[in-house]
Write a structure and sequence with these properties.
single chain, 226 residues, Rossmann fold, 2 domains, 7-stranded mixed sheet, 8 helices, binds S-adenosylmethionine
């Protein structure tokens, strides 16, 4: 039987999942990720989606790759609304604002709940919301997939609200210089674009870009020394 091949961003998300617990993939769509995890030995898998269509396609994927359509529990759910419990929650392929809304609505949150997040847009909004609401980013990677850079982060809840500055909001814990240069250049362009209409915003964006530049210099300086 053939095996599901994950895109680089989903493979990175799969690599951050802890072994042996209840794993819930929210916004599963095709359910390739839970199928891959099942084939890698995980047995307590939930695949959730807000729409019936993706769940139908998920059922087909599960039958195709696993042979038993009950191997993964399928749940029609807006975010985590209909999910009672999971140790690890994966939310990939959605905007940062929607991911934040889904996490903040989690009813079974405890200090050991982990979230593996892969925002397509607005990662800076997601990081701010996470830190304001008691979540901590333990690990964050940049992943190149089909010519585009994505971030994938592993997050847990500890209930402690934290301050974030703009530089952290835009790069989080990513230390890949290609991603940092991309984030810096995007901020400089945005600062230039609003320089006349909103000088205060332009200055704030430029300050964040300077912070990223400093981080790049620190990384490159360390690389020279070693
Ligand atoms: C672009 S697909 C991402 C699929 C897969 N997670 C990936 O990263 O390749 C987004 C999926 O999220 C689902 N979705 C959107 N909003 C949702 C919500 N509030 N709760 C659950 N699923 C949602 C959509 O129906 C769709 O199947």
């Amino acid at each position: 039987m053939s095996e599901p091949i994950l895109s680089a961003r989903l493979a990175a998300a799969a690599g951050m999942v802890r072994k042996g617990g209840v794993i819930c993939d929210v916004g599963t769509d095709h359910a390739l990720l839970p199928c891959r995890l099942w084939l890698d030995g995980e047995r307590k898998l939930i695949a959730a989606d807000i729409n019936e269509g993706p769940l139908l396609s998920a059922r087909q994927t599960i039958s195709h790759y696993i042979g038993d359509e009950n191997a993964v529990r399928l749940v029609l759910s807006d975010g985590l609304d209909k999910i009672d419990y999971a140790d690890d929650v994966i939310i990939a392929g959605m905007g940062g604002e929607l991911i934040a809304r889904i996490i903040l609505g989690c009813r079974f949150l405890c200090k050991d709940t982990h979230f593996i997040l892969q925002p397509m847009t607005k990662a800076e909004v997601l990081r701010r919301e996470l830190y304001k609401n008691g979540f901590y980013i333990e690990k964050e990677l940049a992943v190149k997939d089909a010519g585009r850079l994505y971030v994938v982060m592993s997050v847990y809840y500890d209930g402690q609200s934290r301050e974030t500055d703009d530089t952290f909001a835009y790069i989080g814990k990513v230390r890949d210089t290609a991603y940092l240069c991309f984030a810096r250049d995007r901020l400089i362009r945005a600062a230039d674009n609003c320089a006349c209409a909103d000088p205060a915003k332009s200055t704030a964006l430029r300050t964040a870009a300077d912070g990223i530049e400093k981080t790049i210099n620190e990384i490159e300086g360390n690389a020279d020394e070693s």
